[in-house]
From TrEMBL:
<feature type="compositionally biased region" description="Polar residues">
    <location>
        <begin position="77"/>
        <end position="98"/>
    </location>
</feature>
<protein>
    <recommendedName>
        <fullName>PD-(D/E)XK nuclease-like domain-containing protein</fullName>
    </recommendedName>
</protein>
<dbReference type="Pfam" id="PF20516">
    <property type="entry name" value="PDDEXK_12"/>
</dbReference>
<feature type="region of interest" description="Disordered">
    <location>
        <begin position="76"/>
        <end position="101"/>
    </location>
</feature>
<feature type="domain" description="PD-(D/E)XK nuclease-like">
    <location>
        <begin position="157"/>
        <end position="407"/>
    </location>
</feature>
<dbReference type="InterPro" id="IPR046797">
    <property type="entry name" value="PDDEXK_12"/>
</dbReference>
Length: 433
């Protein structure tokens, strides 16, 4: 991604921050942005993200957006205090939010979030190529290098079919063969760690450390535009926390109650983030291109998030965490869309990953305008078998290609339009930051 575009956006936002105005009275009552996260201990988050590394490191001369940006509460100076990251102690503290996480509560958002199953004809066209690639992986097509046909790890496995092997290549050099064997050995180590983690019933944090981080580091090591980032400490910027449909304020005390209503679930779930992400990096100026001020994500657009859990957890609580995070991402993106003159356009469909112990799956986040659908779709592999981890390796390659070929051009175009409109009072005035 051309870093000039993101730099121009963030720099102009930073310039606008020097002249903040007082927010209107209606802003605070529109959402849950005033919840005092410091009043409730924050449990370790469970989401994963991978970074798309910017290849262009050139800079751009300073310019500023119209004064209208300075009046937007999202970019006021108060965020520097409100969004400081909690210390390690508070991050490791237990949180009562697990008691309140219900998927039904996501329907109480101003823009509701629904988890659905795929149906014919409902998937947007912008996911077609990625879904085709993931379908091939799910069908175990062309996964295993031919030089491993005689390897003991693949003998007697009835799941391996003829189409599972890559084409034979008689010209494979000794160096290529060594590279294949070295890669296989590393994948073998990860599978061993995964099996041990399941046997000894490791915690979610331990799974992230022993298995998931190592897998993500391995599969992105040769991909220049991708890098995974552990974002378990990331918190949503108050201004981008999803709004409630009621528009009413809720006090921080609500997050300490033992109630189990939808509002309590939403309030406490703003503590819950994701574990890893794919993001675009470059050390730019103030503010954030994402919905969080967590430094590794502040200046790097994150197209893919990964939520992890263990069998001792619940799918529902993980879905609520993911739903809140995605709703906040949409809340962050809509003002950028508006400034770019794209208010009527839908956001790009995003893939998100969920991990249950060793099993990995991909869902698609579909912007329907009035609501968000997260459509459960593909099993993309696992870390408890050699065949499964080769599926994961191929799936991550497909997702990496999507970031480069689809997300990066879309996001670059969006920010380019926003930067170009910075001098257009009509366009800037239509942006509801």
């Amino acid at each position: 991604m051309n870093s000039v575009i993101v730099q121009a956006w963030l720099h102009d936002v930073a310039m606008a921050n020097h002249h903040p105005n007082t927010p209107s009275e209606g802003v605070d009552e529109d959402g849950i942005e005033n919840f005092d996260l410091d009043q409730t201990p924050v449990q370790r988050n469970t989401g994963l993200g991978v970074e798309a590394v910017a290849l262009n490191t050139s800079t751009r001369s300073a310019s500023s957006f119209p004064a209208v940006l300075a009046t937007r509460p999202v970019f006021s100076h108060q965020h520097s205090a409100d969004n400081s990251q909690p210390d390690d102690t508070s991050q490791r503290s237990s949180s009562p939010s697990k008691r309140f996480q219900k998927m039904a509560s996501l329907r109480g958002l101003g823009v509701p979030v629904y988890f659905t199953q795929p149906a014919p004809g409902v998937m947007p066209a912008d996911t077609m190529e990625l879904r085709e690639a993931l379908s091939a992986v799910e069908a175990k097509e062309a996964l295993l290098p031919a030089v491993l046909r005689s390897h003991p790890d693949f003998q007697g496995d009835e799941r391996i079919r003829r189409q599972t092997w890559l084409s034979d290549d008689d010209t494979c050099s000794a160096a290529d063969r060594d590279a294949v064997l070295q890669n296989h050995g590393r994948l073998r180590d990860i599978v061993d760690e995964s099996r041990e983690s399941a046997d000894v019933q490791r915690s979610e944090a331990a799974w992230n450390s022993h298995v998931h981080s190592n897998l993500l580091k391995h599969v992105t090591r040769h991909t220049q535009h991708l890098k995974f980032e552990d974002i378990t400490s990331a918190r949503i910027i108050p201004a981008f926390r999803p709004r409630l449909s009621s528009g009413k304020q809720a006090s921080s005390a609500a997050s300490n109650t033992s109630g189990c209503g939808p509002t309590a679930a939403l309030i406490t779930s703003v503590h819950k983030m994701v574990d890893f992400a794919l993001v675009m990096q470059e050390p730019w100026e103030n503010q954030s291109i994402n919905q969080t001020l967590y430094e590794p994500l502040r200046t790097r657009p994150a197209p893919i998030f990964i939520e992890t859990m263990t069998v001792s957890g619940t799918k529902e609580s993980a879905n609520v965490q993911l739903g809140i995070w995605i709703a906040a991402w949409r809340q962050r993106m809509r003002p950028i869309m508006a400034l770019a003159g794209a208010e009527e356009e839908k956001l790009l469909t995003l893939p998100v990953i969920q991990v249950m112990d060793s099993a990995w799956s991909v869902s698609f986040v579909v912007d329907e305008g009035t609501h968000i659908c997260i459509i459960d779709d593909y099993i993309i592999g696992n870390t408890n078998s050699m065949l499964g981890i080769y599926q994961l390796q191929a799936s991550m390659a497909a997702l990496g290609a999507w970031v480069k070929d689809v997300f990066e051009p879309w996001f670059t175009k969006l920010l380019t339009r926003a930067v170009e409109n910075r001098g257009n009072p009509r366009a800037a005035g239509s942006s509801a930051f």
